Amino acid sequence: MNIITIFSIVLIVLAILPLFMVLIKMRRLKAFKQKAVTTTATITNIEKRRGFKNNTYYVLTLEYRTIDMTKTFTSHSITTKKYIQGNTIPLMYLPENPAKFSIDSGKGYPYMIAITLILFGLIVWFCYWLNNLEYTGS
Distance (Å, rounded) from C-alpha 103 to C-alpha 61? Predict the structure, then answer.
């Protein structure tokens, strides 16, 4: 096997990893949703922060009550969406452990799958093109 073929195989394996990561995240969210109870959370505080390469993200302080209204929880969540303090957002939590929650609805996963599939297809095409080049020596 020549170096270009080995490089192509490694590149294809690396290109499929993001797709597997998205599929695993979707599966985890689906399992969480099957057990979770939905309620609303009030955003009590928002902190705007800067991350890697000056990307903006927000740390939300959320307050929510269990469905039976017996306990109130205050938690933090990190998001890239901009929210307004005092608004309510949907929140899912596990009934056996109400402190374990998620505000991710999974609406963006189909887009992520499409993007990772397009990326994978482009890399496979590039590797095919690279392996079928006519090399001439002098």
Answer: 12
pTM of this prediction?
0.76
Whole-angstrom Cα distance, residue 49 to residue 76?
14
The span from the CA of 76 to the CA of 60, in Å, is: 5
The b-or-e profile of 34-67 (16+ CB within 10 A means b, else e) is eebeebebbbeebeeeeeeeeeeebebbbebeee
Query: How does pLDDT run across 38-85, given as a tens digit for each residue?
Result: 999 999 999 999 988 889 999 999 999 988 878 899 999 999 888 899
In the block, which residue shows the tokens 């993200």?
Answer: 57
> What CA–CA distance (Å, rounded) separates 77 from 49?
13
CA–CA dist 50, 62 (Å, integer): 20
